[in-house]
Automatic annotation (TrEMBL):
<feature type="binding site">
    <location>
        <position position="20"/>
    </location>
    <ligand>
        <name>substrate</name>
    </ligand>
</feature>
<protein>
    <submittedName>
        <fullName>Uncharacterized protein</fullName>
    </submittedName>
</protein>
<feature type="binding site">
    <location>
        <position position="95"/>
    </location>
    <ligand>
        <name>substrate</name>
    </ligand>
</feature>
<feature type="binding site">
    <location>
        <position position="9"/>
    </location>
    <ligand>
        <name>Mg(2+)</name>
    </ligand>
</feature>
<dbReference type="InterPro" id="IPR006384">
    <property type="entry name" value="HAD_hydro_PyrdxlP_Pase-like"/>
</dbReference>
<dbReference type="GO" id="GO:0016791">
    <property type="term" value="F:phosphatase activity"/>
</dbReference>
<feature type="active site" description="Nucleophile">
    <location>
        <position position="9"/>
    </location>
</feature>
<dbReference type="Pfam" id="PF06888">
    <property type="entry name" value="Put_Phosphatase"/>
</dbReference>
<keyword id="KW-0378">Hydrolase</keyword>
<dbReference type="GO" id="GO:0046872">
    <property type="term" value="F:metal ion binding"/>
</dbReference>
<dbReference type="InterPro" id="IPR016965">
    <property type="entry name" value="Pase_PHOSPHO-typ"/>
</dbReference>
<dbReference type="InterPro" id="IPR036412">
    <property type="entry name" value="HAD-like_sf"/>
</dbReference>
<dbReference type="InterPro" id="IPR023214">
    <property type="entry name" value="HAD_sf"/>
</dbReference>
<feature type="binding site">
    <location>
        <position position="11"/>
    </location>
    <ligand>
        <name>Mg(2+)</name>
    </ligand>
</feature>
<feature type="active site" description="Proton donor">
    <location>
        <position position="11"/>
    </location>
</feature>
<keyword id="KW-0479">Metal-binding</keyword>
<keyword id="KW-0460">Magnesium</keyword>
Length: 167
């Protein structure tokens, strides 16, 4: 199996839901999210939602605890571990964000099974607020792919590295 690359999406693939919607819904911000959704791009909206959570006293620890409750089918854990044991190079390509993905993977002991995670960057700022950024700055340099969201082209993200690997 050496040389085989397995690329996973994250939301609705590794986990059984959309991680952004999970956090917003579980922490009681669905109404505001739905109100703002038509007014801004998704990543901008999620960054704004993290600002709202922070302003209402929701801590990073509470967001982490919420993420640890995300439903994950037990067979996906087995599939990931089995592919890794067989020598497959496992990667994630997702329009979620790094903080959510890493929190969930670490909670389930799966972080070390993946060699690469391509997703929207996120970080906790000096005020303790989670910030979420787009993978591509879609306002200044859109990727012009009609198949993908404007902030992340999933079609071409792995293409150069995949074709350089020995088969």
């Amino acid at each position: 199996m050496a040389g085989i690359v397995v690329i996973f999406d994250f939301d609705k693939t590794i986990i059984d839901c959309d991680s952004d919607n999970w956090v917003v819904d579980e922490l009681g911000f669905t109404q505001l999210f739905n109100q703002l959704l038509p007014t801004m791009p998704w990543n901008t909206l999620m960054d704004r939602m993290m600002s709202e959570l922070h302003s209402q006293g929701i801590t990073i620890k509470q967001i982490e605890e919420c993420l640890k409750r995300v439903p994950l089918h037990p067979r996906i854990i087995t599939a990931i571990k089995s592919a890794h044991v067989l020598g497959c190079d496992l990667r994630i390509l997702s329009d979620a964000n790094r903080f959510f993905i890493e929190t969930i993977l670490k909670h389930h002991g799966l972080m070390d099974y993946f060699s690469e995670i391509n997703t929207n960057p996120s970080f906790v700022d000096e005020e303790g607020r989670l910030r979420i950024r787009p993978y591509h700055d879609f306002t200044s340099s859109p990727h012009r792919c009609n198949l993908c969201p404007p902030n992340m082209c999933k079609v071409f993200t792995f293409t150069p590295t995949l074709f350089q690997q020995p088969v």
